[in-house]
Specification:
A hairpin with an 8-residue loop joins strand 1 (9-15) and strand 2. The chain starts with 8 loop residues before the first strand and ends with a helix. By secondary structure, it is of the alpha+beta class. 16% of the residues are buried. The chain has five helices and three strands.
Length: 129
């Protein structure tokens, strides 16, 4: 028997009640590869425009400073920023949802997003018979 509890993830649940019962967002609290690899595209896709502006400022500053500090150092600093973006992605996405009037409904632990949604709906509306 396989143990799946070793691979559980914390999910934050957000809802927008005025858009109906299907307006739920389940945010996994884990590293985001898409935010690490393509930070500005990830920010636009999540509606995190403040994050995109931050990326523009950091990238612009590193391009401007590269001749002074060296292109290797500028690349390394950009790598550090991209790594931070990957780890900060869940909280950045949560703040973007909050700014658009989504309501934090709580947190739960599940093995994947589908399980988190099923557990949440069972807790709120009762289990299906």
């Amino acid at each position: 028997m396989a143990r799946t509890d070793r691979f559980m993830t914390l999910y934050a649940i957000y809802a927008k009640p005025e858009k109906g019962p299907d307006a739920l967002a389940f945010l996994a609290d884990r590293f985001s590869w898409s935010a690490f690899v393509l930070p500005p595209l990830w920010g636009f896709s999540r509606g995190a425009l403040a994050f995109v502006v931050l990326w523009l400022v950091v990238a612009g500053a590193l391009v401007w400073a590269a001749p002074v500090i060296g292109f290797g150092a500028a690349s390394a600093l950009y790598g550090v920023f991209a790594l931070w973006a990957g780890f900060a992605a869940p909280s950045v996405h949560a703040r973007a949802l909050s700014r658009r009037d989504w309501i934090a409904m709580g947190e739960l632990v599940a093995s994947d997003t589908a399980s988190a949604e099923r557990i949440w709906l069972d807790q709120v509306y009762g289990a299906r018979v």
